[in-house]
Each structure stands twice: as structure tokens, then as C-alpha cells.
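Can you give me the bound-state structure? Components:
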Amino acid sequence: MRTDVVFDRVTMKYGKFKAVDSLSLQLNEEKIYGLIGRNGAGKTTLLSLLASFSEPTEGTIEINGETLFENADLMQQVTFVYEKDYQENTEKVKAHLEEVEAYKPNYDANFAMELIKAFNLPLTKPVNQLSKGMMSALNVIIGLASRSPITIFDEAYSGMDAPTREIFYQKVIEDHALHPRTIILSTHLVSEMDYLFDEVVILHKGKLVLKEPVDVLLERGASVTGAAENVDRFVQEMKKINTQKLGGTKSVMVIEQLTEEQRLQAVQSGLDIGPVSLQDLFIHLTKEGDHDEQK
Amino acid sequence: MNKNNRNGRKVAFDMTFVQLGWATWMISIGLVIYVGIQIFLGDKNIVDEGFFNFIENPYKIFMLVVGILSVPSFLSYYVKLGVTRKHYFIGAAISSATLSVIFMIIAMIVGGIEQLIAPTDVITFLGANASWILIFFVFSLNIFIYYVAGWLIGAGYYRFGGWGLTLSINAALALIFMLDLLWSGELETPLHRLLSIHAPENLSLFISFSASFLLAGISIWAIRAMTKRVRVKM
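Here's the bound-state model for the whole set.
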């Protein structure tokens, strides 16, 4: 089922603090979105609004043209996975999963069992006695097996060790291919997860910085390295996001889709053109101080 | 679509089941103490008063506590599962009413067995000759309103924090105080006298029932108003 999620000038205030500030965003394809932003950028607030944990202070959130908040049909299509506190939950893992199943219309119990085996999750252990890694595993199992048209993972994997996270990434890719749906992965482990994303949404201080397909985004940027003078001349008219200088050599990261002509010109000037990583783009786009002023 | 519309009922069923699980402990322990007192202490007063009078207060305290937990634990739990606040509210209201009735059915069964073993005149605050049906309804209603009082406290705290707690505890106390005025002392309270001077007892009952429903209605409305758009804490 296709789901169009439209945030229209959404603001969320806590007292006077604007956690999300007049943000407009559309997620209109069954893609894997990477939501990245620094601590306090408003990621979790934005996602909790999508999970109907609260109503936006201003603006609207609609799914398929209908207001999301308190809409029974739509709320059931969203699963929000985050690092939940299970300290008071004394029931066994199996019973907990059965309760979830009762309220998730697309829940696949067989797939859940497959995941339980993959993550080595003990079914008979009380939930509050699970290790941190196992709690994370339980969370992502619920997220994946629910097969909700909108599935959100908000740093739900930070309790897992690297090999377990790798299993999770594989399962996300495999299951998304079989059952396309909108998956939002919020993270600051950008370099580790960037290959999962179809599109990237970057937030900074409650505002949307950009939303673009990963390949388009990376194509838009380039690193230009060479003799300082030549580099400066080459990038003069471009949007610069980072500059590093070592002796007479300079490396400038630009947001600019270079034309063939420009590439040729660069080679002629003895400059190296390299790609930018998502991580670099993220760091520089969300750096303190206004990056727009660098142009 | 249909599946979603059943969510209110599903919540009602699940909540009833979970809370009944908790209540099993309370009722079992109550029963053991009640029987124990009779066997070991041979306390004649308690036997005369019957199981109803004995279990009434444990029931009320249980409902008050479970009511306080309702919003912080169940509302939060269900919204996180994608259930609307409205369906939680419907479910919680139905389950608490169901629980009140089930509690009284259990008390009636125990009371009935008691009558078979050693018939006595069951005397409740409704008078010596009150019918079992009347006792059933009045006790169920009273137990239910204790849940509502707890529910009000939990909702006020969850929605408004400390100030909400202060206000809602006072509101809940007022509710319970009014309930006591309406239903205690063999319907001979000053409030009754004020409301039904020289009125026959039927009118008095009518007033008690209407006033109780009205108070419960206002409280439930306040709970819904506080939780309708409440932010669920992560």
C-alpha cells in the first residue's frame, strides 16, 4: 500500500523551545529514508509526531490526505521503534510479541520467528531481564515483523554490537525488497548506514536542511584538491562547505554538480576531483555557524 | 477499517483480563483472611456482616489504585501500539465497569455459598431487607466510581504534572466524599434530608442513583477532556 506522508509547516514547541520549527517535508515513496541530524536537531521529536505521541503545536501531518493524529486507521500503519525502557515489563518475550501482534494488522509471526533465530533472542526470558543488546534486538524485531507501511527506527540499534547491527541492516534491505514500505532510519552512525538509504533527510536545529536521493546528493558535491591558488580560482563561484589547508595544498568541499567542462578544466589546472562522503556532507552541513555564509 | 473499529473492544477485553489477573490475588487473599478470621478468631461480628461488607473496602482500594495506573500505564502502552486515545478511553471505561460487575458477581457467589452454609441476615448500609439486585447494583456502582476517582488522579497528573495532581486529588476526594454522603448511613445523611425532606425511600434511592451517575459522568468527561490530545511520554 502506497503511503504519502506530508508534513506541512509543522512546529513543535516545548514551552518556548521550538524542537521542530515550521518544517515541511514529503515522504511519498516506499523508500528507505535516512534521517540524520546532530543531537537535539529535532529528529526524535519529528518522529514521535509521526507516531502520534503528540500533536504538532502548529501545522499539519497528513497521510494519504487525511490528518494523522487520532486517526485509528492511520495510527495503526505506523510503527515507531526506539530505545524503550522495559524495566517494568516482567512478561516473557513470547507473550510480549503476542500482544504486539494483536494490534499490528500486518504482523508476520513467521518472519518474527526467523528474526528471533537470527538475533538469538531468548523467548522465555522476562523482557526486563534482557541485556541491552537483546532489548535492542527485541525492538527491531517488533519493527520489522510488524511490516507497517510506515516503520520508524530511531537509534534503536545503538545497544547492539557491530555484527548484530550488520544482521539488522541485511534484514532491512532484504525485507524492504520483498515488502516495500516507507522505512525511516534515524541515526548518527552515518558512515555505517549510508548504503541503506535511498534518500537522505537532514535536520538541523529543528529545520529541514535538505531531502534528496543519496546518489543525487553525493553527485552534487565534490572535493577539489590541489595548489591553493588553483583551487581558489576553480571554486570561486561554488558553494563551499569545507576548506582544509595544508601548506600550499588546499582541499575544498563544494556543493556543485560539476560539468564535464569543469572536470576537464580541473584536470588541466592540476586539480584532483574526488567524491564527498555522506558523513562529510552531514558534518559540514550541520556545523555550528551558518554554512550559507560561506558562499 | 473494521479491524480498527474493534480496537476499543479489544482494549476493553485485554484490560479486563490483565486487571482481573491482578485482582485474583487481592480476592484470594481477602477470602483466605475472611475464612481465617471466622475459623481461628470466631469473630461473630464479621460473620454477621457477611462477605459483602468485608470485601467492599479491598475492592474499592484496588479499583482506586488500578484507576490511578490507567492513564500512565495503559494509555501510554496502547498509543505506542498505534491505538487511538479514544479507543483506549472506550476500552478503559468498559473494562472498569465490567470489572466492577465481575467483582460483585464474585462477592455474590461467595455470599450465596455463605448463606447455604450458615444462613444469616445480610445487613448492608442499604438496610436489613434490601434486595440482592439492589445491593448488586449499588455496590457495583460504588466500586466503579472508586475506579473513576483513581482514573481522574492519574489523568490529571499525566496531563498537567504536579499541579494537575494537586487539583485532581482534590476532585477525586470530593467525588468520594459525595459518594459517601449519597450512599452511606442507611440513606439517612444530612444531604439526603436536605434533598428529600419527608420523601419516601424510593425517591431517596432515585436521587442517590441520579446524583452518582451525574458525578461519575462529569468525572469521566473531565478524564476524556484531559486525555483527548495528551502527549504520550516516551
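A couple of observations. The first helix of chain B runs from residue 2 to 5. The interface with chain A takes residues 1, 3-5, 7, 10, 14, 78-87, 228-229, 231-232, 234 of chain B (CB under 8 Å).
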